[in-house]
Design brief:
The complex is a heterodimer. Chain A is of the alpha/beta class. Chain A has a single domain, classed as Ribonuclease H-like superfamily/Ribonuclease H (Nucleotidyltransferase, domain 5, 2-Layer Sandwich), CATH 3.30.420. Helices cover about 40% and strands about 15% of the residues of chain A. Chain A is built from ten helices and five strands, in the order αααβββαααβαβααα. The two termini of chain A are about 25 Å apart. Chain B is of the alpha+beta class. In chain B, helix 16 packs across helix 18. Chain B is elongated and about 100 Å long. Classes of the chains: A alpha/beta, B alpha+beta. Chains A and B meet through strand 3 and helix 10 of A and helix 1 and strand 1 of B.
């Protein structure tokens, strides 16, 4: 009862979204920004979440390229495989041998990919109104911003849940020194007794991140009523 | 398919019955999967899920219990939980997670729509355990039908017709001429169009030529009267059993009581290679115990061979039992040759698995002697020496001495007919649970050699009493209920009643024995004289004690357990290990575990429906 009566400040994302909407060009970006975000006081259970993962040629959004995009929706804490999306992007320039080893995306496969704008347009359409769930958000945030600036002239705003941040906060609270490698997706999954997964495929990593998030929410005994606010970065 | 879902795809593909589906169909299933996470201690289905769904365990563990909080089963990685496939299943079973659990689930409605063209897969979800078990056993029996011969060949395939006959008043010489002309070694002797006996070339040698009888005498002087016959409806295997037990080589075949043909042991032998028939015939030719012991080494080989041929467990056990019987009879003949004829009529009895014709190689010997009431105290020297010779002989042939001392060498089990009758009276009239546990073996008795009427008279009286003694049946039942099947499997362990895990499944004590015990209870309650478990179940089917469908379920269950036991023992025998009954879940496939769980359920249902004390 008290909760409902508490005055809710409009969240920072909403303020920024409305501000950006005013200057967004017509098209996919404007459509994306037209959809209101969920209140950060929505329960985690009731929120719409999109687990996303990008595979890239490197960590620098300015010079490296986006190779593939994978995502899957979480609806009422259930990962719906019917909503799976995985797409290789046709990018210019040859791939380095190191990258091919990691992502198994060869130049031949890449040549069969879709254009960057088609993939980003689809991602924005599905992401609209949802919270993005990622592991180590810097990559997805920066590469998506860079792609949007190149395509539409502005970078979008969107609320993010980062499973790495959730895990880090927990470890920091314990005030015991830890090895940063513990925060890797595969290591965190192992700690939660989740099965080993085939990493470095964008969709696989997105599903793996979503599973980790479900395990984290359960482990922290956040309860069904726990608000989105507590996990947003 | 997208490599990203390859792991989920191959995980689901590894779980029966999904392994039966082609790749495109499985891909559609994967596409409909939702993944959810259930914290330890939470109940299924997950919050907000009301529609019927199938759950597959990716990691973690679930427990299934009834509303009395009684554990019914557990699910581990790779198990398939069908509890929520049916909306609001009447029995309020509860599923909760024992560990944090990652689950794949699919809407049951969507699943049935995707697999609609695969009836075998749909059946897996829709059928009850007994239906699934029955289907599995039908398939196995069909395979056995192709693989095996004798068991499933009618006598009609073997017998010679028309049967060669001779009039009773014809001379022995005429009989010899007719045999020579026809190339037959035996003739059925007729009198006024009815068969009165049989005469073989051996009779001419022994009873005429060697005895100095004139060949002009009538043939009925040397014939064997009251010959054994077999009805044409029986299978070739039953003909073999009849010939083995009576030690005859010719068996007239009747149709509506009239002799229409003849089946010989050679006919049967030509049909199968190294087999039970050849075996019994070489046993008959052995002259010393050491020769018999030599032959007995072949017994495990025969068991492996029959198992590999896909022969049904029932047939294998009957063959091994028939051979054990042949060994015993040959030893008895040797004993009588050494000790001279018995002072009074008697019968050598087999008890337990041999009597039930459910014996396998390397089993122990359980036997007894029933002696005519004319026996005098001094005769016991003969019977003692006799029993010792046969029992030692059996031990030399690999049938180890009975650890419980149920052997004819034990004076307690070497008794007169009236003493045996008193034993049964005592067991039935004043049933003592502990005593009953040790004597249940004597309710499965069969005559191996000697005067069959001795046992049959006692048995007839015994059965009229067991039919009426509810107290006796109730005590027998509470003993029988002490051996329970396990709940199922959890990971690579066997899950037992108290939720504990065992490394292996004792196929004999927690699978076969409970069914054997139930069948004995049905037979004794209904006054059925048969001792073979499947035959008891068949005859009890449709009586007050046992419904027809329940009998069919139990027969399927014992056949499955018997088959798994034979396969397990074949693996051990091939490695020169001593065969046992302890099956490790790792030895069998996931699908076989499902079938076993169905069998456990069938046994449990039947055990739970028996009133006991």
């Amino acid at each position: 009862m008290l909760n409902q009566l508490t005055f809710q400040w409009p969240n920072i994302y909403e303020i920024r979204r409305k501000w950006l909407l005013k200057k967004a060009p017509y098209g996919p970006m404007r459509d994306f920004l037209s959809t209101p975000f969920q209140s950060s006081y929505t329960s985690i259970y009731d929120s719409s979440v999109l687990a996303v993962d990008f595979e890239t040629t490197g960590l620098n959004a300015k010079k490296d390229k986006l190779l593939s995009v994978g995502f899957v929706e979480l609806d009422h804490s259930q990962i719906q495989l019917a909503s799976c999306y995985h797409q290789i992007i046709k990018t210019e320039g040859d791939l380095s041998a190191d990258n091919v080893v990691i992502h198994q995306i060869t130049d031949d496969v890449k040549a069969q990919g879709l254009e960057l704008n088609t993939v980003i347009e689809h991602l924005l359409k599905i992401l609209a109104g949802k919270v993005m769930l990622v592991h180590f958000s810097r990559i997805e945030k920066q590469f998506l911003s860079k792609a949007c600036i190149d395509l539409y002239g502005i970078a979008p705003v969107f609320p993010i849940i980062d499973t790495l941040v959730i895990a880090k906060k927990r470890l920091d609270k314990k005030s015991i020194a830890y090895d940063p490698s513990q925060l890797r997706l595969s290591n965190l999954r192992e700690q939660h007794h989740l099965p080993t997964h085939y990493a470095h495929n964008a969709l696989n990593d997105a599903i793996a991140t979503a599973e980790l998030f479900l395990a984290q929410v359960n482990q922290f005994q956040l309860g069904d009523a726990e608000k989105l606010k507590s996990v947003l970065i | 398919m997208d490599t990203s879902l390859a792991e989920i795809f191959s995980f689901i593909q590894s779980i029966p019955p999904f392994d039966l589906l082609p790749v495109p169909v499985l891909e559609r299933i994967v596409n409909e999967v939702s993944i959810c996470y259930v914290r330890r201690g939470q109940q299924l289905p997950p919050k907000g899920v009301n529609e019927p769904r199938l759950y597959l365990l990716r990691t973690g563990a679930l427990s299934l219990s009834n509303d009395d909080n009684h554990l019914l089963g557990k699910y581990g990685e790779g198990d398939c939980c069908t509890v929520f496939c049916v909306p609001n299943n009447g029995q309020k079973d509860i599923v909760h997670s024992d560990e944090d659990t990652l689950l794949y689930s699919i809407s049951y409605e969507k699943l049935t729509c995707i697999i609609k063209d695969y009836p075998d897969v749909i059946a897996f979800f829709q059928q009850t355990s007994s239906e699934r078990l029955s289907k599995k056993m039908h398939r196995i029996n069909d395979d056995a039908l192709v693989a095996s011969s004798l068991m499933n060949s009618s006598i009609a395939n073997f017998f010679h017709t028309p049967v060669a006959t001779i009039e009773a008043k014809s001379s022995i010489k005429d009989a010899a001429i007719k045999m020579t002309e026809l190339g037959f070694s035996c003739l059925v002797v007729m009198k006024e169009n009815r068969h009165v006996g049989i005469v073989t070339d051996k009779d001419i040698r022994r009873r005429c030529v060697a005895a100095g009888l004139s060949s002009l005498e009538a043939v009925n002087n040397i014939m064997t009267p009251e010959m054994s016959t077999i009805d044409i409806k029986n299978n070739a295997y039953q003909a073999l059993m009849a010939m083995t037990s009576k030690r005859i080589h010719h068996l007239p075949v009747t149709q509506h009581g009239i002799v229409t043909g003849m089946v010989t042991i050679t006919d049967l032998m030509n049909n199968e290679g190294i087999n039970a028939v050849n075996f019994t015939s070489i046993i008959h030719k052995a002259n010393t115990v050491s020769e018999l012991a030599e032959i007995s080494h072949l017994l495990p080989k025969l068991q492996i061979r029959m198992t590999k041929l896909g022969t049904t467990a029932d047939h294998v056990a009957k063959s091994i039992s028939a051979i054990t019987m042949a060994f015993t009879i040959r030893l008895i003949e040797m004993a009588e040759k050494i000790l001279g004829p018995a002072p009074v009529p008697y019968a050598w009895l087999a008890a337990g698995s041999q009597a039930r014709q459910e014996q396998l190689a390397h089993s122990d010997q359980d036997n007894a002697l029933i002696i005519s009431d004319d026996v005098k105290p001094e005769h016991d020297y003969w019977f003692h020496d006799f029993a010792t010779f046969v029992s030692d002989g059996l031990a030399a042939c690999g049938f180890i001495y009975c650890p419980g001392n149920v052997m004819a060498t034990n004076p307690k089990w070497r008794q007169s007919q009236s003493k045996w009758a008193r034993y049964f009276d005592q067991w039935i009239n004043t049933p003592d649970p502990k005593a009953l546990m040790h004597c249940s073996i004597f309710f499965d008795l069969e005559t191996v050699y000697g005067d069959t009427s001795l046992l049959e008279n006692v048995r007839a009286t015994m059965l009229t009493k067991t039919k009426q003694s509810t107290l006796f049946i109730a005590h027998l039942t509470s003993n029988a209920l002490k051996l329970r099947p396990p709940l199922g499997f959890f990971r690579d362990f066997v899950l037992i009643q108290n939720g504990k895990n065992k490394a292996t499944l004792d196929l004999k004590h927690n699978g076969i024995a409970p069914i054997v015990d139930l069948a004995r209870i049905y037979a004794l309650s209904e006054g059925i004289s048969e001792v073979n478990t499947i035959e008891r179940l068949r005859q009890a089917a449709g009586t007050v004690s046992l419904s027809k469908p329940a009998a069919a379920n139990l027969i399927d269950a014992i056949e499955l357990l018997g088959m798994l036991r034979l396969e397990h023992q074949a693996r051990q025998l091939e490695l020169d290990q001593k065969p046992d009954n302890y099956l490790a879940p790792k030895e069998i496939s996931r699908l076989e575990r499902e079938h076993l769980k169905d069998a456990f359920k069938v046994i449990k249902t039947m055990q739970d429906s028996r009133p006991s004390i």
